[in-house]
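Q: For a teaching handout, I want to show students what a protein-ligand complex looks like in token form. Below are the inputs, and the small molecule is iron/sulfur cluster. Please produce the holo structure.
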Amino acid sequence: MSDSLIQKYNIPGPRYTSYPTVPFWDEAGISLEDWKKTTLRAFNESNEKEGISLYIHLPFCENLCTFCGCHKRITKRHDVEEPYITTVLKEWDLYCNLLPQKPNIKEIHLGGGTPTFFSPQKLRELIEGILAKANRCTDYEFSFEAHPNNTTKEHLQVLFDLGFRRNSFGVQDYDLKVQQTINRIQPFENVERTTNQSREIGYTSVSHDLVFGLPFQTKESIISTIEKTKLLKPDRIAFYSYAHVPWIKGVGQRGYDENDLPKEIEKRILYETGKKLLSELGYVEIGMDHFALVTDNMHEAMVKKTLHRNFMGYTAGKTKLMIGLGMSSISDSWYSFAQNVKTVEEYQEIVNKGEFPIFRGHLLNNEDLIIREHILNIMCHFETSWKDDRLKFPELNECIERLQEMQKDGLVEFTENGIKVPEKARPFVRNICMAFDLRLIRNKPTTRIFSMTI
Ligand SMILES: C[S@@+](CC[C@H](N)C(=O)[O-])C[C@H]1O[C@@H](n2cnc3c(N)ncnc32)[C@H](O)[C@@H]1O
Ligand code: SF4
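A: Here is the structure, written as tokens, with iron/sulfur cluster included.
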């Protein structure tokens, strides 16, 4: 892609882990009644067939990595573990009391923050507490995020014994200057140890998170990071574009400024360099940001077109109901979204009063549901179609006009009643989704709320 196209399309834009995206949820939010109603609807439509997913947010980290955009709480005090786990289990009780029958769990994902901040014993209590009130689907998938610096063999063994078979380790970049700038010193040996131990124990999919666009990253540092990654051959690699969002309260992005970041064309070169090397190593690009070996089930999901995208990013299977537990978690009932309060204190206080800790949400209308399908199709399969009347909507013609403009730039190809994103235009996939994003188009933001698309 030419530099001028990169300049033209590198604008602030959503990452589309949901539609509508969080900043465009209804200001009025969602009533508790509507949230319960839609949760029950999604549960009844799906529990027997596909099961439900649980996302559990474990927010604590011992040290602040200054590039991090996640919802986390930095502390070295481990006495926070006990009350937090107790509260998550109480929140789970609220849902189990709402549901008409025992849920069948298809997926559990422990995200953070740093789940391995918690002791193996506490993680065991958490998962056993969850499973005491649920059944597992036969093809269940449990996964967790881990920091290589604080993941012990015991963590890996305990979670394996509970049924976890996938994990992902934050790596970001192996270059010392980059690591110093983002306040995250993490030797290769730690990643090597946790990756090898995972495999010895029997994990079937180990993933590494790499980030491009970090301060002081260069083409050479990306090459060297991927050379090191090659030695460990993770089954999946998340190759995230660094999201620079210092205006968002509480993320703590500091210690460097915009001048230290690779500029747009340089950043694109970092991505292209990484992508080329990963392809040479046998990794296939899956959706946006992700690469997998052909032996990993995410690759199979892409081939079979069962890939799905939600707040956790890409997943190999889809469930209609994803319940998010823990502070800041977002739940998705397909017909609605709901987000939990964003501080540990508030979260614990509300749940301990026996109430759902939801502070905002969105009830999807018919148009939202149709646009949501198009955006999911584009993000997961790089194509969508409005051949089926069910997927037509009143402003489709205006949307087609925007896509025709992109067609002139080679970003989309029209098929019979649909579009396809050609291989070379994949970095622009967020821009293509923006052509469908009626809520964004109708309410152009006046301040920066999204990171750049490229
Ligand atoms: C919750 S962390 C992973 C687990 C653990 N806390 C760790 O850091 O190793 C999730 C991942 O999000 C990614 N991430 C965090 N902040 C980001 C940002 N500003 N831009 C892009 N990716 C980011 C990083 O790759 C990070 O590994
Ligand atoms: S990158 Fe991971 S360890 Fe670092 S602050 Fe973010 S969540 Fe915590």
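A: Two things your students might notice: The CA atoms of residues 70 and 243 lie 10 Å apart. The mean pLDDT is 93.
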